[in-house]
C-alpha cells in the first residue's frame, strides 16, 4: 500500500509538472500564428463568380475569405489568432507578370504569411501561341519570390499548383451549358476551343496546353523548394479531380463556393502548417 501511494504521488507530480509546460507550448503556438496574411494570384483567389454574376467574391476566397461555407486559410488561422488581418492582393485576370507588383503590396502590408496561386491565365489564353513561355514564367516568378524574400525575410510562403485545365475540359465538354458559356465568353480558348472535336490536331493541342501547365507547376514547385520558408502543395491542386458541380454555372470555369471550399481544404492540408 505504501508503495502504491508513493507511485500515485509521483504520477500526480509528473502530471502537474506537465500542465505548465503544455500551457506554455499552446501559448507559444498561438504567438507563432501569423498576425497578417496576404494572398497573391488571379481570379481564383478573388473568388470570381463564386457568389455573383461576373463579380469578384473575395469573401469566398480559399485563402483570405470570411465565409464559413469555404473555411479559408484565414478562418482556420484566426482560430489561433483572433487578431489576424488578411489582405487579398490577387487581381482577376492576373498573370505571373503581375506577381512582382502583388509581392510589393504584400511587403507594404508587412505580411508574415503569403499564399500564391498563379498561372492559369498564362496557359488559358486566346490561342496556344499566346501562352506564356516557361522561361518567362520562371523569370517573373523568381522576381516576385525575391521581392518577398528581401522585403519579408521571415514570412512563411505557401505556393499552390495550377489546377489541371484539361480536367476541366473533360468535366464540362459533355454539358451543353458549359460549352455555350465557354464559347460565348471566349473562355480559355487555348484549351477549350472546339470542345467536342476528336480531331488529332485538337487532341494534340489540348495535350500541349496541359503540358504547359505541368511545366509551370514544376517551376512553382522548384522555386518554392529553394527557400526554407516556402511550402508547396506537392501537386495537390493539380491532381484534384474537380467536377462540374464544383464550378460556377455562370462560366463553368471558376470554382463555385463548393470548389473554393475544396481548394481551402486541399491546400491547407499541404501547409504543414508552415509555422
Describe this structure in words.
- The protein is α/β, with parallel strands linked by helices and 275 residues long.
- The protein folds into two domains: 1-32; 35-271, Rossmann fold (3-Layer(aba) Sandwich).
- The chain has twelve helices and five strands.
- It has helices at residues 2-32, 43-46, 73-78, 99-108, 120-123, 134-151, 165-172, 176-184, 189-192, 200-225, 236-239, 257-271, and strands spanning 36-41, 85-88, 113-117, 156-159, 230-232.
- Strands 2-1-3-4-5 form a five-stranded parallel beta sheet.
- The longest helix has 31 residues, at 2-32.
- The N and C termini lie far apart (48 Å).
- Residues 1-31 have low confidence and may be disordered.
In short:
With 275 residues, the chain is α/β, with parallel strands linked by helices. 51% of the residues lie in helices and 8% in strands. The chain has a five-stranded parallel sheet with strand order 2-1-3-4-5.
**CATH architecture term of the largest domain:** 3-Layer(aba) Sandwich
- Secondary structural class: alpha/beta
Q: Helical element count?
A: 12
The CATH homologous superfamily of the largest domain is called SGNH hydrolase
The CATH topology name of the largest domain reads Rossmann fold
Described by the principal axes of the CA atoms, the overall outline is: globular
Strand order of the largest sheet: 2-1-3-4-5
Describe the biggest sheet? Answer: 5 strands, parallel
Low-confidence stretches: 1-31
Strand content: 5-15%
User: Alpha-carbon distance between the termini?
Assistant: 48 Å
* Average predicted local confidence, pLDDT: 90
- What CATH first level of the largest domain would be assigned? Alpha Beta
- In helices, the fraction of residues equals 40-55%
Q: Please tell me the total number of domains.
A: 2
Q: Please give the radius of gyration in angstroms.
A: 22 Å
Overall strand count:
5
Could you give the order of the helices and strands?
HEHHEHEHHEHHHHEHH
Keywords: Signal
Protein name: Lysophospholipase L1-like esterase
Signal peptide: 1-30
GO molecular function: phospholipase activity
